[in-house]
Each structure stands twice: as C-alpha cells, then as structure tokens.
Specification:
Blueprint lengths: L7 H6 L7 E5 L2 E4 H18 L6 E5 L4 H13 L2 E4 L6 H10 L4 E4 L1 H4 L14 E3 L3 H7 L17 E7 L7 E6 H14 L7 E4 L6 H14 L2 E4 L8 H8 L3 E5 L2 H6 L14 E5 L3 H11 L3 E6 L6 E3 L8 E4 L4 E4 L21 H4 L1 E5 L13 H7 L5 E9 L4 E7 L3 E4 L2 E4 H8 L5 E10 L5 E9 L7 H9 L12 E5 L12 H7 L6 E6 L2 E4 L2 H13 L3 H5 L1
Parallel strand pairs: 1-10, 3-4, 3-5, 4-7, 5-6, 9-10, 9-11, 11-12, 12-13, 23-24
Antiparallel strand pairs: 1-2, 7-8, 13-14, 15-19, 16-17, 17-18, 18-19, 20-21, 22-23, 24-25, 25-26
Length: about 550
C-alpha cells in the first residue's frame, strides 16, 4: 500500500536531530540539523506561496546548499521540483517552464536575465531570487518552525526531469518520492556508501544523474555533500583533497576533461574511494582508475528507470555490460528479437542491419511513472506492454549489450539530451539554407557530436565566419546545440515521400562527397582528407573504432 512506502520527506525529517556534517560549499558548512531546519522553512514558504493548479516549483539554480534545501523543502511540503536547464534559451526555455506547469520559479541573480521577456505562464510575476533581500525576508518568519504537516502521496510527482525523446520538444519525466527514496537505498547498498562518505556533487542538479546518483544516496546514507556550482576539471583534485571527497558521480565527459589536465606524480594521493557514473568513455575508465587510484564503476541507465545495464569485470571493450533476462533487443518495426551480433577478428560488427534493434525491457512498463502532460509519449514508451528505451543496441552470444546510438531525431552531448527538431528550426532561419537535418554522429570521447546537413539555396557558398556569427545571434540556441560538423549540399538522400534519410546521413558522417566543414577553436574550416584520417586515428587511440564501424 502506498502509505507504507518510504518517501524523501521521511529521509529529510529523519535527520532533524543529527549534528553530523551535511553540506560543504565554498566557505560554508551546515550540519544535518541546520539542513533540515532550512528544508522546513522552505516547505512553509512554498506552502504559503502555493497557487491553484499543480504544486510545481521551477528550480533555475546553480549547485549548492540552496538547491539542496529547496529539494528537501519541496519533499516536506509535497511539492514537485522542475529542474530547469540554464543552457536552454529563449522560447525553448519558456516552453519548458509552461509545459511543466510551473507556478513558481526559484532562481538567483546570475540566471534571472534568462527569464526576462519570456512568457512564464502561471509563474509570471512569481519569480524569487535566493540571493535577494526579499528571499531572506520571506524565509525569516519560518526560521526554527516545526516541519509543516502535509498529506504526502509517495507516488505523486516529486521531480520533473526533462529528457528528450524521439521527436520534438523535451519531455518531463516524472519521478515520485517513493522511487527516488528507493533509488537512494539501492545506491548505498550497491556502492557500499555510508555516513562517513563525502559526496562530490558537481553534476548539474537539473539532471537525473546528479539527483539519483549523488543527492539522494548522500541523504539516504547521511553522508556529507560537497557542492561546487559547476564542474571544473582543473579544480577537481584540489576540491577532492580540500573537502575529503570519497565518492564522485558523473555523466558523460567529466572523466575525459579531468584526464586532459596535466598529470602529476601524486595524483593517486587522494581520499577517493568510489567513482560511479554513466556514459564514460571506455578508454578513460581504466586511465582514470589507474591515475587516481580509485575504481570507476560505469553503467547504463535512463532517467525514466526503464532499463539498466551494468558493467562486470569481464565486460568487453565498448560493451555496456550485462542486463537481466527481461532486457532484450527488439526490431522496433516487427517487435521480434534481433539476431545476435556477429563480429570479425577485429571486433567489427558484420550484421548491423539485422543485429541492431531497440533496447527494451519486458518487465518495467507497469512501473514506468510517465511524462508530465504527454500521454502520447507515455503510450509510445510503453506500447504493447513493453518499455522501449529509444536507444539502439545489439547483443552478443555471451549476453553483453552494446550501445549503437540513439534514435536519429535526438542527441546526447556532454551528458545532456536534446531533440534535433529545435536545432533544425533555427538553422533554416539562415538566409542560405533551404532545408536542414540535424543528427548525432559519434564523438571520439563519449556520447554524440552534432552534425547538420544543409540544403543550400542555389548558388550559395558556405561562409564560415558568417555561419558562426549567425549561430551566435540565435538567442534560443542551446549551448550544446551548435553543429560540430556541417554538410553543405545541393540535395540530401530522401525517401519517395521526401523524408530525409537520417540513417544514411549518420552512416556517411563526414565521409560523403559533399562539402563538409568542421568547427575548431578558430571557427569553421573545410574538412580535408588529412582531417578525416586524424579523426579516425583519435577514435582508434581511444579504443572506439568499433563505434565508427556500426
């Protein structure tokens, strides 16, 4: 019965009398007693400000104690926190806020300008800055107050986490208090985390990795959270030593960035005990473990929680790992299980057309908590009683799962998901572009790079400086959205119904006969045969050549 399910509220209030360290941030220090008091005060404030409609609070904040106490306060009050991504811009940002039915936005002065001039829907005129005198004054009457009484439904939305799907705008994945609390318990058991651990919390807190792999296991274990506003590769090791960090969670490329810093002979002299994350480059997992003297545990999982794949010690290079028997690779058109992968002596996949299918779970559809205000996406994700991840994969005869990319209408860059459609809508504003297709191509490190194929207007030449200037002038272009590669063409491969064949574009990547440009530190330049050789050599150096051969 739902009344018996543990909640995040339970976890917060269980620390009310705890004087052990809870949060470290810059020069600030908080005990759990202070943390829970801060959560209680914010719960009262949120309850006072509750408007008609969904009790949804948008959080447009950097990492730090304020974000953590807002999460705790929302749990105590029974509100849902909507993680707002500050890399979204203009109309796209406004769409996220209104789609999630935010009735209040909590932000800070450094992000306030992102909201200026936007249609905020129910949150219009209801924006609070946590570094303003007005915020301090609003909290003051609730200082020292007992937590408010609240009738909490453990299965009601607690987090709305934006994640891109197969088409169009991002979807707001629902996570309940019960699910997040359960994730916290599972994490501390699997990673053997305790109240003596210090959790380095630098992944952006609007992202599921930060909350599910960092914030909630720290709270569940009663450990100490060491916050930094944003991740910094150059500040990583000094922070680890200064705060006494024993646990670090990541998503995407942070390991790559840290490894790019100058190596020192004493790098392994640090308190790190566990590093856990998703989507780390295989080549970097071993290097990081060796350089810093700490095991790295990388796995596959999704915000929605539908499919999980875990690495084992015998996992082959470039494989995700093994999953339980409920996880399969199905042909999305027929629903039949895809044949097993066949490799040559070099590890190249010989039967990609047959072996590659969509990674699914035959068991998790009933427990999928859905997307906010998007029944069509719910149905698509769980059609036929099967949970469809949207990720492409193949499986070998030993049961190891290999990631083969994502649906061609969405991308994942530096650990962030976004759809191709909004980028395409921006590119066709360019006066020399008639049609644009945006799609993912493999990054030599991890995840995707953005590639755009543009059908140019007759007689138009690619102007690299002008194109870079055009992108810089688009207020709604996300910070991860600018194409790394641009294919400048008179025509693109299409179906008989004039649908662009993104599968073909992705396979051809930067190796077509069309004019192709690549973005470097000095802007866009024409790609040469020597550049193509250098790109392939980088993939080879990182052990990722099989990704190019899929």
């Amino acid at each position: 019965m739902s009344e018996a399910l543990p909640t995040v509220r339970d976890l917060v209030l269980s620390r009310t009398e705890d004087d052990s360290p809870a949060m470290l941030f810059e020069h600030e220090r908080y005990t759990y007693r202070q943390f829970t008091a801060g959560c209680a005060a914010r719960a009262h404030l949120l309850a006072d400000l509750r408007a008609d409609g969904p009790f949804h609070v948008g959080a447009l904040l950097d990492n730090g104690p304020e974000y953590s106490m807002l999460l705790g306060g929302a749990a105590v009050a029974g509100a849902a926190v909507v993680g707002i991504n500050p890399t979204r811009q203009g109309a796209e940002l406004a769409r996220d806020i209104t789609h999630a039915d935010c009735s209040l936005i909590v932000t800070e002065s450094r992000h306030r300008k992102l909201l200026e001039g936007l249609d905020l829907g129910a949150a219009a005129g209801r924006v609070l800055d946590v570094d303003s005198p007005a915020w301090a004054a609003a909290l003051a009457p609730h200082a020292g107050a007992e937590p408010p009484l609240a009738d909490i439904d453990p299965l009601a939305p607690y987090l709305l986490l934006f994640t891109s799907g197969t088409t169009g705008d991002p979807k707001a994945a629902i996570c309940s208090q019960a699910r997040l609390a359960r994730i916290g318990q599972v994490m501390i058991e699997m990673r053997q985390l305790t109240r003596d651990d210090v959790f380095y919390q630098v992944m952006p807190m609007f992202h599921s990795n930060a909350l599910m792999a960092g914030w909630i296991p720290c709270l569940a274990a009663g450990g100490t959270a060491a916050f930094r506003r944003r991740f910094s590769a150059s500040g990583f090791l000094s922070d680890v030593r200064r705060f006494g960090v024993t646990y670090f969670n990541y998503v995407g490329k942070p390991l790559t960035y840290v490894l790019a810093t100058p190596e020192q002979p004493d790098d392994a002299v640090n308190p790190l005990r566990v590093v856990f994350g998703n989507e780390g480059a295989v080549h970097d997992l071993e290097r990081f473990a060796r350089r810093f003297g700490v095991p790295v545990q990388d796995s596959y999982g999704s915000t929605e929680g539908g499919v999980a794949v875990s690495r084992t010690p015998d996992t082959p290079p470039n494989a995700l790992g093994r999953a339980d028997e409920s996880v399969k690779v199905l042909d999305p058109d027929t629903g039949e299980e895809a044949p097993l992968a066949v490799f040559d002596d070099t590890g190249k996949l010989l039967n990609p057309d047959e072996a590659i299918g969509e990674l699914v779970s035959m068991a998790s559809a009933p427990t999928f908590e859905g997307y906010w205000n998007n029944p069509e996406a719910d149905e698509e994700r769980t059609r036929g009683g099967v949970y469809w991840s949207g990720d492409l994969a193949y499986r070998d005869a030993e049961g190891f799962v290999y990631f083969a990319g994502r649906n061609f209408d969405w991308l994942r860059v530096d650990g962030e998901n976004f759809a191709a459609a909004p980028v395409e809508r921006i590119l066709v504003r360019h006066p020399d572009i008639d049609l644009a297709a945006v799609y993912a191509v493999p990054s030599p490190t991890v995840g995707d790079d953005v590639m755009a194929a543009a059908v140019r207007r007759p007689g138009a030449a690619f102007d690299p400086e002008g194109f870079a200037g055009f992108l810089a002038g688009q207020d709604d272009l996300g910070t991860k959205w600018a194409p790394r590669y641009v294919r400048w063409a008179d025509a693109l491969p299409q179906t008989e119904t004039n649908k662009i064949l993104k599968r073909t574009l992705r396979r051809e990547r930067w190796e077509s006969d069309d004019e192709t440009w690549v973005r470097g530190v000095d802007g866009y330049r024409r790609l040469t045969p020597e550049d193509r050789d250098a790109i392939r050599a980088e993939f080879e150096a990182r052990g990722r050549l099989p990704v190019l051969d899929v």
